[in-house]
Structures are given as C-alpha cells and as structure tokens.
Write a structure and sequence with these properties.
The protein is an alpha/beta fold and 364 residues long. It folds into two domains: 196 residues, Medium-chain alcohol dehydrogenases, catalytic domain (Quinone Oxidoreductase, Chain A, domain 1); 135 residues, Rossmann fold, CATH 3.40.50. The strands form four sheets. Strands 3, 4, 5, 8, 9, 16 and 17 form a seven-stranded mixed sheet that branches. A six-stranded parallel sheet has the order 12-11-10-13-14-15, sandwiched between helices. A two-stranded antiparallel ribbon has the order 1-2. The protein is globular, with a radius of gyration of 20 Å.
Amino acid sequence: MTVPRTMKAFVLTGHGGPEVLQYHADWPTPEPLPDQILVKVGACGLNNTDINTRSGWYSKSVTDATTGDAYGEVGQEDPSWGGAAIAFPRIQGADAVGRVVALGENADPALMGKRVMIDCWLRDWDDPFNKDKTGYFGSECDGGFAEFSVADYRNVHPVESAMSDAELATFSCSYSTAEGTLSRAQVGDGDTVLVTGASGGVGSALIQLAKRRGARVVCLASENKHEEIARLNPEAILPRAPTDLPSALNDAIGRDTVSVVADVVGGDYFASVIDVLERGGRYTCSGAIAGPMVSLDLRTLYLRDLTFAGSTVLPPHIFADLVSYIEQGEVQPMLAATYPLEQLHQAQASFVEKKHTGNIVVLP
C-alpha cells in the first residue's frame, strides 16, 4: 500500500487529566528504522498502564486509588511504570494489532503483509532477559493510538486467527500480564486460585489462564457482573468484598482457604485476601487499582510460610505462548466495547468507570 505522510493520532502532552490527550488529524507517519517494521493499526486495546501513565499514578507521591483524573501532586522523576520520566509528546496504546505494510532494511521480509500482534515489552535483543533493559510499548516509545505505528521486528508475532482485530486487541497486555502473574506463582494442577477484580481485563484473563493450568478458580467481582463472568466457568463467583471471606469460600467450595491469591486490586481488602491463604500459600500481584497502600501483619507472612511475588516485566516466551493459546482456541476474548480512535476520551472515561466486563478497544 501507499503509506500516507500524515496520520490520525492521539498524543499525550504531559501528566494530568484527559485534557492532556490531544487528537491530531495530521500527525507525521513514522518511518521504520533498520530493525523496525511499520504496522497499519487495526485496533488497540485500553489498559491501566495507559491511564496510570497519563495521570502520573505510578509516582510514589501518589497514594490514592486509580481514578484517571489529575492528581494534586505528581513527582516528575518517577511518574511511569519504570519509575522514570517519559518523553513528551508520546502516542500511547500498548495493545496494538494490525498488518505489516513496510519493512526496515534488517527486518524479516517474511513479515510483510502479515497480521501481527505487538509484544508490549521492549527489550535489548542482545540481552533480552535483563529486566533493567526493558521498556513498554506506548510508554518508552510511541504506541498504537494512531493509524500507523513502528515496532522492532522481533517484537511482533504473526497470528493466524478468525478473530477480528478488535477481539485480538483484548489480549496483549491483559493476558500476558495474567500469564506472567500465574507463572511467577507457579500455578498448576491442584491449586485453588482466588482472583480479585475478576471482571476486568486482567481478571477475566486470570480466570481462563488459571483454568488452563488445571487450577480451580474462585472470583471476586461486583454482583452485577457475575452473569458475564459465568461465561468463563469459574468454580465459584463471590461478591467483590464479602464481609466474612472464609465463610463465603467455605459455602462456595467447601474449604475456607485457597493456595493462591492473584490480585490486581489491593486497597483496604488486601488483609482479607491474605488471611485466606493456606499455610505455604502464594500471593501474586500485578495491580493495585483500589489503592497501593496496604496493611500487612508480618506475623501472617512468616508464621504461615507465605510467598509474595510481584509481576511486571515478563520473560520473552510469555507473549509467544499467549499467541499459541489464541491460535489453538484455548482462550477467548472478552470484548466489552469498541470506540473509534477519535473518541479515545470517551473510551477512557468508560474504562475508568469500571462498569464493563473485559476489555475496551479503539479502532483507528
């Protein structure tokens, strides 16, 4: 195809509320460097990283829950996922799916014309397992909230699937995050996993991927979302924050403890989920949407031989594994809604309201 010189794009101009995201109809189309390919973006999913980076929530000066609005004080040295400043202007959007339309001179020619998913994690390909040498697509480089985007050819995976671009765009961030979270906790056959925030993108992915590993899954979610979550066939679905969680578990599954808690919520209910971990249980976390500041009785941690794991940067095989699960039909998309790119403000407002189940996607 003939690549136009300009494109539609949403550009982040600083940290703050939605007003710092500005729409442009004539933003320069990027040109691929020697190791890059140019992707015509078909769809790009929304995720918490986009919202949190825009608002500056990652800064340690912020202790509130994620809201999507501007905070009164945001540290300028650590407002991104990696604890460092990012460069503006920046096109966000990590969950990009599209078709390769141009190649840099070093890129694999077999990629030309292929439909691809972009791995969110940027790596030093001379040292790909070094977590200190990573970046995030749409954070340390421009992402997919635009008609075109460039990516290192080693960071894209061709995908053979009957799913639409919008459906495929629900997977990249949420499902790779979930798979990494479960991998860190070594979840497997015989485990019982308690999933918090089960109606969100990562939560719904955790349900499917934990079941794929042979685990029983118990979900916590608002009751108006239970019908949608039931499509994923968890062992049990409980209210978002039962007053007596051990009793609720016992009534649902015949035991009052679990072997693993997979948490994306944090906040005031943190102590309740820790208290239902069995002796030797594992807590694994990849989010804190209800608030990052929690209370922990260290006696619970050491007297019950618990293991805690945080999960952000993923080993390279996780994304390739996820693409294989998609191609083999082992996971299903949870597409909540689509918006045209021009309505990114409305899409983010809907995302922050958390009234949806699954993932919201924009279509350039």
